[in-house]
Amino acid sequence: MSIRRLWDRWFASRPRLRVPLAVVLVLALGAGGWQAYARFTDDDGPREWTKGPYGKAPVALGKTAPARPGEMVRRLNRTPLAVVGGLALYKDTTRDGTRLTARNVRTDRIHWQYGRDKELPYDLVIGDELALLWWNGGGLTAVDLRTGEPRWHAEAPRTSTDGHHGLVTNARVMDGTVLVASEEELWALSAADGKRRWRAAPPKGCERWSPTDAPLALREVYVVEAGGCPDDPALDDSPQTDQMAQIGLDADTGAVRWRFAHDARLAPYRPVDDATLVAAPADSDGGMSVTDVSGRRPSTRTLPFPDGERARGNTARTLVSQAYDDPGALRGYALDDGRRRWTHRPPKGTRLGEAVVADGRMYVVEQPPQEKGWPPPPGPSRLLVLDAERGELLHFLDLPELDGRRGGGAQELVPSHARNGVVTVSWDRSSRYVDVLVLTDARP
């Protein structure tokens, strides 16, 4: 007998009960649906939720950083955490919990929101397809960037706050793999389902992983930093090493393939190609370090590098740096012999903000000189696009005046998020609530 016939037979003589029972059933179904919708149901514990997605996921405005930015997509009043594809991502953290919001870059409308009540993240990293949150209560959540729905939940490496190092965690989302590291362990997880592929303790001769800098991906190898390596036979006794090492782990198994000394005075290593790393000193008294890991043992060359400069990025043949005393002049140094290949200085009466290197190009804002006091001085500025190999000016765009008064610590105009056909420009990337221009290639 069908449910409809049972319903009609039962209420044939009881018509007054139909409406109250229908209301009870709707409420029960709604409550059950919410319980299924929420990951956690304990009133005293965290609970996660998703609103949206609202419509189809927007597509990226391009495949690379824009070569000739000239069209303004949006003017935002808040700096995005990241711009991925056609979405701008924001994070809000309060005592009530954490919320991620994805907005359509073209329209600024909310595409989805994900939240977790009563818990805050140690770490949050954004990949091309998912956002990974490492919670302070333990555990990992991977949120799908297209829908805002949790893709998977997984355990996290154990952490400790007993030592003087405190609690240190780091994560990286790469093609098909999620690497998560604490001082005690490093795990490789599948980006598809969160299942652990392998785990690695600090290598023999080292006390801990040092996840200060995010892991790097080379050909078949993940590069991770380790610390507390006083007896490491691969390292010398120079105090410059600060007992730190760069470790190459097999991408499939986590086994150690090679290691080499890491000068603690150096800025983070940068990949040159799938078998070469480069680092330039963050302070004086050092040289550029280029390490080739294609052979059985790493081979490191130290090249000259001037004091008072900071590396901003690199191509396969050139390291781009920026001088603080010139003011902010850009220079390119050859990675084969360390010689200076080019210099770009701002015109008299202007300065350059911090540069970004992406897809073989440099993005930097030419702006009025910095003055004492606050707010930052208004004045004409323009976004420059230069060839990172030759230092040649490829394109420039006059920028509208941007309000830096709300930024608090805003000191200079900087570009960021140069990818997926978009480059953003705003006051100081550490400032949260400021004007942000979202630019894409000018239409022909």
TrEMBL record:
InterPro entries: PQQ_rpt_dom, Quinoprotein_ADH-like_sf, WD40/YVTN_repeat-like_dom_sf. Residues 138-320 form the Pyrrolo-quinoline quinone repeat domain. SUPFAM superfamilies: Quinoprotein alcohol dehydrogenase-like (SSF50998). It holds the Pfam family PQQ_2. Residues 286-312 are annotated as: Disordered. This is PQQ-binding-like beta-propeller repeat protein. It comes from Streptomyces lonegramiae. The lineage of its organism: Bacteria, Bacillati, Actinomycetota, Actinomycetes, Kitasatosporales.
